TrEMBL record:
GO molecular function: sequence-specific DNA binding; transposase activity
One of the protein's GO biological processes: DNA transposition
Pfam families, per the entry: HTH_Tnp_1
InterPro entries assigned: Transposase_8 (IPR002514), Trp_repressor/repl_initiator (IPR010921)
Name of this protein: Transposase-like protein
Top-level taxon: Bacteria
Annotated organism of origin: Desulfobaculum xiamenense
Amino acid sequence: MRRKWDARTKARVVLAGLMGGCVTDICRENGIRPGLYYKWRGQFLEKAHTLFEQDQRPQTPAELEAENARLKRLVGQLTLELDRDGGSGR
């Protein structure tokens, strides 16, 4: 039976190798074959740059509504502060 590996475990294993660990030892400790390690490493390196890209996922209507409500609350709070301070900015 094939074992399912979660993304965190794969990343941990790959990073151990990239940080100078002996790949043979890492594979033995984690019960994987070196070929699988190198496959994961290739996937990791191929997609690593996406960590530094902005989230390109479009927001859902619910997310947009929640952000809108948050911003309205913030505007209300700032307006109250300005009114309380007499509009002098402090």
